[in-house]
Design brief:
Length: 273
């Protein structure tokens, strides 16, 4: 058939320029997604692997330094064993709005007169947050230095366990209360939930080694449960957990569940030797 005279035949013209522009946009978008994914992956690797590696190495080195120093320079006769100045009977109840349990995944607020996030000095001339003891938990295969204060930057993020200002010295009457990270930065208390009643915990200082035995475990409490670090520890959120009489207690606190700071896990132990 012939096309009728004067009838227009439609012609479809494809624009190469538009196709190229669309492909370029898709390519840029794909590159952006991949780049963002790589950045996120690097951040995860840094938090979950690199911070642990760095903090564990530093903590282990600090343990070696402490124990070498103690072996070379024994305690002065007549000196009181312990951490060198923390109150043996302090009651760090403080402001009921503060977080008494370390908040390892957030900013730590110290339940004492010390400014928030700043460890209280332990003794004249002592460096802030200086390590003064070595904590060992055989069941967890854990050996970690204990430092003054619970500041993230100068204590917890270095892989150390922090000693709450105002709580008792190791081996003394009262509550020797400690905080540590559950995840990242050495995560010394990663497996604290694996402890069971009767497990042994030791604390070595320059003057002596103290042995505690796990007595009670509070699986979950509020971050602001200040009762758990008092001289006679007892939860104010769950009063069925804790003690009624003075004694020599050790308290370990960390965040729970893992990778969250929603609650606190608390382990209590009594001095046995």
């Amino acid at each position: 058939m012939r096309a009728r005279v004067g009838q227009r035949v439609p012609v479809v013209v494809q624009s190469r320029g538009r196709r190229r522009t669309g492909a370029r946009v898709l390519w840029v978008a794909a590159e952006t997604v991949v780049t963002c994914g790589v950045v996120v992956l690097l951040l995860v690797v840094h938090q979950l692997w690199w911070t642990n590696r760095q903090a564990r190495a530093e903590a282990l080195q600090q343990v070696r330094v402490l124990e070498r120093e103690w072996d070379i320079s024994p305690p002065v006769p007549g000196a009181t064993p312990g951490d060198g100045g923390s109150s043996p009977t302090g009651d760090p109840t403080g402001d009921p709005t503060v977080d008494p349990t370390g908040a390892p995944s957030g900013d730590t607020v110290v339940p004492s007169a010390a400014p928030s996030g700043d460890p209280a000095p332990a003794r004249p001339g002592a460096a802030p947050s200086s390590a003064f003891a070595v904590l060992r938990i055989p069941r967890l295969g854990l050996t970690v230095p204990v430092a003054h204060g619970v500041s993230k930057r100068s204590v917890l993020d270095r892989g150390y366990v922090g000693h709450y200002p105002g709580t008792a010295a190791p081996g003394r009457t009262g509550n020797f209360a400690l905080a540590g990270h559950r995840n990242t930065h050495g995560e010394p208390f990663r497996y604290l939930d694996r402890l069971a009643e009767g497990d042994v915990i030791s604390v070595r200082t320059r003057g002596a080694t103290y042995t505690y035995r796990v007595d009670q475990i509070l699986p979950r409490t509020a971050p602001r449960d200040v009762g758990v670090v008092r001289a006679v520890p007892r939860s104010i959120v769950k009063p069925s957990y804790g003690y009624d009489a003075p004694g020599s207690y050790l308290t370990l606190t960390t965040c729970t569940p893992e990778f969250s700071s929603a609650y606190r896990l608390v382990v209590w132990a009594r001095l046995v030797a």
